[in-house]
Amino acid sequence: MAQILEYKCPCCSGIIEFDSSSQMMKCPYCETTFDPAALLEMDEALNQLQPDQMDWDVPQEQFSDTEISGMNVYSCKSCGGEIIADATTGATHCPFCGNPVVLTSAFSGALKPDLIIPFKLSKEDAKAALKKHMSGKKLLPKLFSKDSHLEEIKGVYVPFWLYGADVSASYNFKATKVRSWRSGNREFTETTFYRLERAGGLSFDVVPVDGSTKMDDAMMESIEPFDMKAAVPFQTAFLSGYYADKYDVDAKQSIERANTRIKNSTQEAFTATVAGYGAITTESASVQINNGKAKYAMYPVWLLTTNFQGKTYQFAMNGQTGKLVGDMPVDKRLFWKWHLIYTAICGGVLWPILYFFLLH
């Protein structure tokens, strides 16, 4: 059975038909005409696009018996978190939820990290950063900074999978240019549609993905970046005095998030090369990963847990750069007071900007 080829109109997405009178392809809906040769060239270009290929070489090396002899695993019965600490550490509290944890077993059956970034900032630095983070927040309850209790502060090495690869990609974009003019009492608007092709390569050295379900992904991405120039080959000695979260999402399971971050960054880079047009949409894309390799690293993070009026608030600070993030309560009375004042003054136009200012 013969295959019927259908071409969609880039202007209105209707099915284009051949118009015998003009010997051109014509859209019966918006009446735009197209050169058949141009449509055939576009179809051939689309058929040449290869499917995405994203293969990775992931870590395999495990800890030796000597290395794990001085480490233990503490298991939290509340949230299921597993915390790695040295053998001298007694029962403690979970840095993720604050509940007591108890020693369960020796640390074994886990991959050995390739790299570690040692803590650069101290516990006192983390406390000072939290205090600074609270200051100047217009909608923060006045009693929060005074009456909130710092329940727990722990230095934790968080497991990260670091993905690096060479990427070659091809993109097809649809873009428009709009021209308007006036003639007499009539206004005219002309919209020209373009099909743009882009192809090239990028290199990614470090695309980090945290390997712990206990750590909020958005929070971990918010305290990036970490300076990889300070990374050193992993040694168990760096764990002394700190905790290390045991990964529960391995390198293969984390590939999907790494691919998403790589594809998003690649698309942003290629879209940035399309200048001088109005609306730009991606019609098709092909992303190929070459020399994809993942490494296992431990990143330093301070976790701070506060309690205010029976509710727990958690903050995370980059143990290398000091960048701190976390949610805080909002004084609803102050919120509506500011809202009413500025709504009355600005008619609501500037309120989103003022809301952002007040919270930051």
Helices, strands, pairings?
Layout: E1 7-8, E2 15-19, E3 24-26, E4 33-34, H1 36-48, H2 65-68, E5 71-76, E6 82-86, E7 92-93, E8 100-106, E9 115-116, H3 123-134, H4 144-147, E10 149-183, E11 186-210, H5 217-222, E12 232-233, E13 243-245, H6 255-271, E14 280-308, E15 311-318, E16 324-326, H7 332-346, H8 351-359
Parallel strand pairs: 9-14, 10-13
Antiparallel strand pairs: 1-2, 2-3, 3-4, 5-6, 5-8, 6-13, 7-8, 9-12, 10-11, 10-14, 14-15, 15-16
Describe the structure.
The protein is α+β, with helices and mostly antiparallel strands and 360 residues long. It is 22% helix and 39% strand. It is built from 8 helices and 16 strands. The strands form 2 sheets. Strands 5, 6, 7, 8, 9, 10, 11, 12, 13, 14, 15 and 16 form a 12-stranded mixed β-sheet that branches. Strands 1-2-3-4 form a 4-stranded antiparallel β-sheet. A hairpin with a 2-residue loop joins strand 14 (280-308) and strand 15 (311-318). The longest helix has 17 residues, at 255-271. The chain is elongated and about 80 Å long.
